[in-house]
Every structure is written in C-alpha cells, then in structure tokens.
Write a structure and sequence with these properties.
Layout: H1 2-52, H2 60-63
Protein name: Ovule protein
Length: about 60
C-alpha cells in the first residue's frame, strides 16, 4: 500500500511537470509565432501603403522595428 502511494505521487508529479512544461512551451511558441506574424503583416501593409501613397512617409520608429 505504501509503495502504491509513493508510485502514484511520483506519477502525478511527473505528469504535472510534463503538462506544465509542454503548456508553457506551446504558449511561448504560439505567442512568438502570432507576434511575428502580426508584426510582419503590419510592416508589409505599411510599406505597401507607403509605396502607393508617396505623400505619407513611413515613420522611423516603425521602419526601425
């Protein structure tokens, strides 16, 4: 009985640890991916818009990103 309790405890601990690790990893990966995607999209959009409308100059802050 005592062995089963320890085994269950270790199993639960490992399961929780792996779950947390995978969750954190996926969250970070997805966050980075979405951030990069949005950033690229906005950057491309601004440059495309800037090429069509030469009057509107791209601010240095945006082009520097």
């Amino acid at each position: 009985m005592h062995n089963t309790y320890i085994h269950t405890n270790i199993h639960t601990y490992i399961h929780t640890y792996i779950h947390t690790y995978i969750h954190t990893y996926i969250h970070t990966y997805v966050h980075t991916y979405i951030h990069t995607y949005i950033h690229t999209y906005i950057h491309t959009y601004i440059h495309t818009y800037n090429n069509k409308q030469n009057k509107w100059k791209c601010p240095k802050i945006i082009t520097g990103l």
